[in-house]
Specification:
2 domains; Rossmann fold; 14 helices; binds adenosine-5'-diphosphate; binds magnesium ion
Length: about 400
């Protein structure tokens, strides 16, 4: 990683502004799932151990630039305090006199959480004056641990970096950059990409970019049907994006020309609708007109398993079936097992995407995966080869100190 890490910072006695992702699911004032808070603890403990004075900022939900206490981070301060086993001060506004006074009152190892940065419209507008006011709360040291927000040029992610001396990656962010960065720049080969999910249109750029980087691509899920139909195969009532057929055909032609292994399903699990009780398995070529494909079939699973078992790098985004329904979850579970087994045999595996991560977690195999990417949209943009503004804005190791 060529970006500065929190481990490179001299933080003792300094106020460090740490942008975290505390965007936890809430039920009223109750935190439904505190995973995101717990995931930041290593970064926070490192800063505490090094004698930093921690000023934490996050967004929560979509308050749309207005104060809406439904999206207050106050309950998060309480939960964080329990998890850290130490007091966490709270400032009811993320900028202004109160936040400044509370940040200045911090002693070494003490923690202040700021109220939701999205209560101000200037946050999403990446407003320079607002960014400067956020930066005033620290001693020119910024740490970003919010990978899931790094594809957005917002003030607490990007703007603030202009007003600090050093902007470093937190431990979570560093892990994302290490795994995703290696996959796109210097993967162990064979590198096999597994893509699925609902729509080709969501993932065109990911398909195009991974076709340049990987050795093979396995396509399942609803998005496979646009590719299959573009080859004149019958797809029944399966989900197809008819306006993407030309694009799908072109991608497959390019793959053929370059002898790139682009592997599509050969059979599938069908039903009249996602809710119907009876299912059927057929080869793709035998797809009946009145049924829709909702999961990959056993021959496809065997085909995919073979590719996965031979891989040294695996990137998986998108369930290969409608895994939310048990009748159509077998394909996705089989892929999860195959990826877990390949990882146990030494392959590096990365799973990204909200639904894919949920599927892997439900399979009970999450701990067997080398890296579960926390940022849905951000990891897709990364795999699509885009530069993420929140990462670009971090200080390069080579210019580890800049004058401002
Ligand atoms: P991720 O969040 O991991 O990026 P997506 O959001 O792209 O994944 O896709 C997940 C959705 O795709 C799931 O809701 C799943 O039900 C749906 N899906 C997968 N295969 C099919 C299929 N054959 N038919 C309809 N929906 C499907
Ligand atoms: Mg999704």
């Amino acid at each position: 990683m060529n970006k500065l890490s929190i481990r490179d910072l001299e933080m003792s006695g300094k106020r460090v502004f740490i942008r975290v992702d505390f965007n936890v699911p809430m039920d009223g004032a109750k935190i439904e799932d505190d995973t995101r808070i717990r995931e930041t603890l290593p970064t926070l403990r490192l800063a505490i151990d090094r004698g930093a004075r921690l000023v934490l900022a996050s967004h929560l939900g979509r308050p749309k630039g207005k104060i809406d206490l439904k999206y207050s981070l106050a309950p998060v301060a309480a939960r964080l305090s329990e998890l850290l086993g130490r007091p966490v001060a709270f400032a009811g506004d993320c900028v202004g006199a109160d936040a400044e006074a509370k940040s200045k009152a911090l002693r070494d190892g003490e923690v202040l959480l700021l109220e939701n940065v999205r209560f101000h419209p200037q946050e999403e507008a990446n407003d320079p004056e607002f960014s400067r006011r956020l930066a005033q709360l620290c001693d020119q040291l910024f740490v970003c641990d919010a990978f899931g927000s790094s594809h957005r040029a917002h003030a607490s992610v990007v703007g603030i970096t202009k007003f600090v001396r050093q902007a470093a990656a937190g431990l979570l962010m560093e892990k994302e950059l290490t795994y995703l960065g290696k996959a796109v720049s210097n993967p162990d080969r064979p590198f096999v990409a597994i893509l699925g999910g609902a729509k080709v249109s969501d993932k065109i750029e990911v398909v195009q970019n991974l076709m340049k980087l990987a050795d093979a691509m396995l396509i399942g899920g609803a998005m496979a049907y646009t590719f299959l139909k573009s080859q004149g195969l019958p797809v029944g009532k399966s989900l197809v994006e008819n306006d993407k057929l030309d694009l799908a055909r072109n991608l497959l032609e390019e793959a053929r020309r370059r002898k790139f292994r682009f592997v599509l399903p050969v059979d599938h699990v069908l039903a009249e609708s996602p809710d119907s009780a009876s299912t059927r398995v057929t080869d793709i070529a035998q797809t009946p007109e009145n049924l829709m494909g909702l999961d990959i079939g056993p021959k496809t699973i065997a085909l995919f398993n073979q590719e996965i078992a031979a891989a040294r790098t695996l990137v998986w985004n998108g369930p290969v079936g409608m895994f939310e329904k048990p009748a159509f979850a077998q394909g996705t579970l089989a892929i999860a097992r195959a990826v877990a087994a390949a990882s146990a045999a030494g392959a590096t595996s990365i799973v990204g995407g909200g639904d894919s991560v949920a599927a892997v977690e439900r399979s009970g195999l999450a701990s067997k995966i080398s890296h579960i990417s926390t940022g849905g949209g951000a990891s897709l943009e990364f795999l699509a080869g885009k530069k993420l503004p929140g990462i670009e804005a971090l200080t390069n190791k080579s210019e580890s100190r800049k004058e401002i």
